[in-house]
Design goal:
about 15% helix; 8-stranded mixed β-sheet; 5-stranded antiparallel β-sheet; alpha+beta; serine protease; single chain; 10 helices
């Protein structure tokens, strides 16, 4: 029997179990994953490590402990995980799936610092290699900020960039990769050699790359370690350049590794990502962007044919003009069991798909083909087993928050193993609510939008419009799950939700994406105008006279831009989350390469380019009620970008409200704060769209029926 929520509310969204991506065992019979929940009654979070039986789809509890995380297989039975301790320390534990009681687990090592991003690899010589990331001090020692003596002064002094990044002020410590060999004695694992060794000590290199770098920034294999790091000779706030490095290792007990070798990629100077060793450890597949000042440039899929020659790299689908023959953005990379094929993820029209291609650029004559998968977007995937031709895929969709499936590329089939929400049924959601539209953009191109209707949708009725504008701006609304901007939350309030992917969006080719450069309030705005008009003319069940618009980050910028332009008068209310008030304030941000690219130069070289698309230039036209949301730890767009528009709205007498979180960054992540966020947003839009009035009328009708 499937338990079903009576209504998909913010409380249901935020208390629903959240599963991690699942990691299949070497034999392909089981998969490890974590699941966390939050209780608003008890105001606390729980977290478990569980093992999934792939054949039955049933899972078993292994660890019930909020401090335990990152399970990784050591074989088909034993697994490793991390456990946070007191004063910033971390313990490495090993347990057995066949002995599921935590009392049988044992500590392999205790580390005086916070470690994360675990990678374990069984090497052909029998060695089990381990790599993790952790903060390092300037002299290469393991850093533990929680155990450091607190200074008497809180002053911070900077003479270079970054001063702060994302939500933290920069310290002298930096990320580093640490390695060790897991050896066995008397049936138990221990760290061989001298324990964890800092692979980057004395190099001026740092990896994973902040603020979001993780296990995708490095890999370990039979021949050593590959990793991505920023160029230490370039200003990290002005340039995106990250390089790929190789460190030879044979035993992973080397007390002092050799110096990293930089992998040469002539003509490509941007972000490097997703390095993955082939199974034999001789080759490395990875991706790299061309521009060193464009964070969303197209990643080119590359191959290092031999780690013995780091100066020879081959590009897949290379063209003479340098644009590349595959108009997509490859991300995650997985080698087939025999190293003859690559599987990569890439977006296509609001879905993240797995694509298949030969593992040699010379053999890749045809463009990659999409592998069949369940509906939605792929978030993570692995080979089902060390020798399997099948894939184990973790995905989500607009109605399902976690789905594990087995995909067979050779037969183009996909079979669901486990759906966390029974494909949306536990939320009262279904694919019948999901639709899409296409309309003419501001130029000679088509624009795509996702549509979500209420679960009780009636074609004969009209529903107010919730118009969602995504951030980035180089991003996209996708057929995937979100606990921050979930279209179903708005649809279940009684809206038809339209989520357009206008100029600047990813997944529709680089021409559409790159069209936003120097056009922040131009082409994207006109695309949105066309979208609104298309809805009014072609979706008779949508009441555009009761429309509301919401956006975050660049979407928040667009809300402020719309407010000062004719489209703003089409909406009953607006919601701006962490948006840009004035483009002239872009240098209060941290990653300065972003405005340098998007506004075609620095503010002191091209001030007119910043002024042209400045929402603050049009405040005289502001008139629509607007909710402003901003957080004090948002260093991407400082809180003054929220205070200024609120002050103007209030000064002009326009109905407005400010919601501020002192302990959140660009995203509202804490469950209690997220609940307030949802409550305030829904209260605001429902008030102005008339949804509250409809609910009150319905309640009166129900009461009248009870009386009769």
């Amino acid at each position: 029997m499937t338990l079903k929520a009576t209504k998909f509310t913010p409380e249901v969204l935020l208390t629903a179990p959240r599963r991690s991506a699942a990691l299949p065992s070497p034999g392909g019979t089981r998969a490890l994953f974590t699941v966390s929940t939050y209780s608003f009654e008890q105001h606390k979070k729980t977290s478990q490590i569980r093992v999934l039986d792939i054949a039955s789809g049933q899972s078993t509890l292994l660890v019930d402990d909020l401090s335990s995380s990152e399970p990784s297989w050591l074989g088909d039975d034993e697994f490793l995980y991390l456990k946070n301790g007191d004063k910033g320390a971390t313990s490495i534990y090993v347990g057995s799936v066949s002995e599921s009681t935590a009392s049988s687990h044992y500590e392999v090592a205790s580390v005086n610092g916070g470690i994360s991003n675990v990678k374990v690899k069984k090497l052909p010589n029998g060695t089990t290699a381990l790599a993790v990331s952790a903060l390092a001090t300037p002299d290469g020692e393991l850093a533990n900020p929680d155990a450091e003596k607190k200074p008497h002064s809180s002053a911070k002094i900077y003479t270079g960039l970054f001063a702060r990044h994302w939500d933290s002020w920069i310290t002298e410590n930096s990320n580093s990769i640490w390695y060790a060999a897991l050896e066995k004695r008397d049936g138990k694992y221990f760290l061989g050699g001298k324990g964890l060794v800092n692979a980057l000590a004395g190099t001026k290199l740092s990896s994973p790359v902040p603020p979001f770098g993780g296990t995708g920034d490095f890999d370990i294999g039979p021949s050593g370690l590959v990793f991505v790091a920023k160029d230490p000779e370039l200003n990290p706030a002005i340039y995106t350049k990250t390089d790929l490095y190789f460190i030879p290792l044979t035993t992973f007990t080397e007390a002092k590794p050799s110096s990293p070798k930089i992998v040469a990629t002539p003509g490509l100077e941007g972000y490097t990502s997703s390095p993955v060793f082939s199974h034999d450890g001789r080759k490395v597949a990875f991706a790299r962007m061309q521009s060193k000042q464009y964070e969303s440039d197209k990643p080119r899929l590359l191959l290092l044919p031999s780690v013995d020659d780091v100066d020879k790299v081959e590009e897949f689908y290379a063209t003479h003009d340098g644009e590349g023959g595959w108009d997509a953005r490859p991300e995650t990379i997985v080698w087939s069991a025999d190293d003859s094929t690559l599987f990569v993820t890439a977006e296509k029209e609001a879905r993240s798909l797995v694509w298949e291609l030969p593992a040699s650029p010379a053999d890749a004559k045809e463009l990659p083909t999409a592998v069949k998968a369940v509906e939605g977007s792929v978030g993570d995937f692995h080979l089902l087993s060390d020798s399997s031709l099948k894939l184990f895929v973790t995905s989500t969709s607009l109605v399902d928050n976690s789905c594990y499936s087995v995909v067979d590329p050779s037969h183009n089939t996909a079979a669901i193993v486990s759906s966390n929400s029974k494909q949306g049924k536990t939320f009262g959601l279904s694919r019948s609510s999901v639709d899409e539209i296409r309309f003419k953009g501001a130029g000679e191109y088509e624009v795509h939008a996702l549509v979500m209707r209420p679960s009780n949708f009636d074609h004969s009725k009209k529903y107010p419009l919730a118009f969602l504008i995504h951030g980035g701006p180089q991003g996209a609304w996708a057929d995937s799950w979100s606990t921050r901007w979930n279209p179903a939350i708005f649809a279940e309030q009684g809206y038809v939700v339209v989520s357009p992917n206008p100029t600047g969006s990813t997944g529709y080719g680089m021409a559409l994406q790159d069209g936003i450069k120097g056009e922040w309030g131009g082409r994207p705005y006109n695309d949105l105008v066309n979208c609104f008009e298309y809805i009014a003319d072609n979706l008779p069940y949508v009441d555009t006279e009761r429309a509301v618009a919401l956006g975050a980050s660049y979407g928040g910028y667009m809300i402020n831009w719309i407010q000062g332009h004719p489209l703003g008068r089409k909406f009953k209310a607006l919601v701006c989350h962490d948006g840009v008030f004035s483009t002239l304030n872009q240098y209060t941000s941290e990653e300065l390469f972003f405005p340098i690219h998007d506004f075609e130069g620095t503010i002191y070289e091209n001030r007119a380019g910043y002024e042209k698309w400045d929402p603050a230039q049009h405040v005289n036209e502001w008139a629509t009620p607007q909710l402003i949301i901003h957080s004090e730890l948002d260093y991407r767009l400082p809180i003054t970008e929220g205070l200024a528009p609120f002050n103007i709205l209030q000064s002009k007498g326009i109905p407005s409200k400010l919601l501020m979180f002192p302990d959140e960054n660009h995203w509202v992540l804490k469950p209690e704060n997220s609940l307030v966020w949802h409550q305030v947003v829904l209260e605001w839009i429902n008030k102005y769209s008339g949804v509250d009035d409809e609910a009150n009328d319905l309640a009166k009708d129900v009461d009248a029926l009870r009386v009769e």
